[in-house]
Amino acid sequence: MTAPYVYLTSNSGSVGSSGAPILTAASNLAINSNTNVYVSNAGSTALIYGAAGNSDTFSLVTTNSGNIAVDSNVIAASGTIGTIALNAAGAITETTGALTAGTVNLISNAGDIGASGSGNAINTVASNLSVTSAGNAYISNNGNVTLTGSNITVGSGDILSLATSSGSIAIDGNVGSSSSIGSIILNAANAITETTGVLTATNVNLNTGTSSIGASGAAINTATSNLAINSADNAYISNNGSVTLTGSNITVGSGDILSLATSSGNIAINGNVGSGSSIGSIILNAANAITETSGTLSATNVNLTSGAGDIGASGNAINTAASNLSVTSAGNAYISNEGSVNLAPTTITVGSGDVLSLATSSGNIAINGNVGGSSSIGTIALNAAGAITETSGALTATNVNLTSGTGSIGATGLVTPSTLLLLI
Q1: pLDDT of residue 418
Q2: Hey, which residues does 174 pair with through a beta bridge?
Q3: Beta carbons of 403 and 384 less than 8 angstroms apart
Q4: How many CB atoms lie within 10 A of CB 335?
Q5: Residue 3: other Cβ atoms inside 10 A
Q6: pLDDT tier at 414 (50, 70, 90 boundaries)?
Q7: How confident is the model at residue 103 (pLDDT cuts 50, 70, 90)?
Q8: CB 230, CB 250: distance < 8 Å
Q9: Inter-residue contact 342 to 325 (CB < 8 Å)
Q10: Which among 295, 323, 326 is positioned nearest to 311, based on CA atoms?
């Protein structure tokens, strides 16, 4: 059927069938079926009306480099369409309307799916979403949505952006896999969760409006070079490979936890984490080293662990603004804290023969646990702008250097021979 406008209506049966779609060559398509819809259009077309039956399939394919322009709601007359599948030889765009179904599958073979900017994303109302784009993909979903399929992907160096105007985003498959996605941007009105899969891209940006990103024991798995996080609650992320914390301010909810671990590689801090917010705990656990180019880790508790490298470096310390600090390093550790800090009541340690250096730009250093324990630390250097005090524990190292700027080191009646151990 060839015409500028093609109207297809079935009152009691399907429009086409799987494997035998209705063939059209129309600039504008209006399709109304009480059951399934299978249409293949030669060239670009605007979908000016679409309907299929409850739990049924609405499938539109374009050939000959054709685009699909969504220019109307695609809904069921009653109930909810089972699957809406749009497969464009070119791009998929939208001027108005929403795709409403249990599952929405979007494929563009030679162009983008949606576009950046207000009102240009593809609007969906779906429980399950699958996306394969030769270019960028911009989607906005109303309600909870699960990213499904063996692999969600966009073009090399391009952007996958998914936002929910309400509801959460659940990851249930690989996003990117071995492809070279530029940026994955997930912006959920509620939470971001994951049951399986990995977010693989050069940049991963995760944002939640009212809940957590991942959970304790169920972190969001990423394979990214640059990570930005903004959570209204906790955030738990596990990255495969070295990663840089980027953005003007990485933050989670008041009193909540930001936990980032790498299964391999380093963690590089390149922006404020917490800033003026009241984060409860920042936990960084790097398989290799933890480094910093700019920014400060601001939280009540900061826990830093490196599996096979240093934490900070001489002349380039990790900047913190913490009340409680815990450090476990396979190498050296250099930390500079803004304000008074308490060395937490666990064993603080660094590598054999290595250096633990802690300075405060203001405030005191309070020792509240063993530093060194049975390990063979080379040097412990504590340099407090104020005083150095101790409630429990011992400093155990070959060399111990203690400096206070405006206060005492220890106090009468509190220092015992076991407080300072020099191993020679």
Answers
A1: 34
A2: 151
A3: yes
A4: 25
A5: 11
A6: very low
A7: very high
A8: yes
A9: yes
A10: 326
**Backbone phi and psi for residue 86, each to the nearest 5 degrees, phi listed first:** -110, 120
* Residues forming a β-bridge with 306: 286, 329
- Distance, in Å, from the CA atom of 226 to the CA atom of 268, rounded to the nearest integer, reads 9
Buried b (16+ CB within 10 A) or exposed e, 172-187: bbbbbeebebbbbbbb
Residue 404 three-state SS: strand
- Residues with Cβ < 8 Å from 241, sequence gap 6 or more? 223, 224, 225, 262, 264, 265
Structure tokens that stand for 371 in this block: 């530093």
301, β-bridge pairs: 281, 324
Residue type, 214: G
| Gap between the Cα atoms of 45 and 86, Å rounded | 12
Question: CA nearest 234: which of 261, 217, 252, 222?
Answer: 252
CB atoms within 10 A of CB 71: 19
Whole-structure pTM value: 0.94
CA distance linking residue 175 with residue 146, whole number of Å = 12
C-alpha neighbours within 13 Å on the C-beta side of residue 260: 33
Specify whether the CB–CB gap between 291 and 269 falls below 8 A: yes
HSE-CB for 3 with a 13 A CA cutoff: 7
Q: Which of 174-183, 326-335, 376-385 has the lowest mean pLDDT?
A: 174-183
Strand partners, 156: 181
Task: Give the Cα separation of 414 and 416 in Å (integer).
Answer: 6
Q: Predicted confidence band at 249 (pLDDT cuts at 50, 70, 90)?
A: confident
Q: 258 with 281: CB under 8 angstroms?
A: yes
Alpha-carbon gap, residue 150 to 166, rounded angstroms: 25
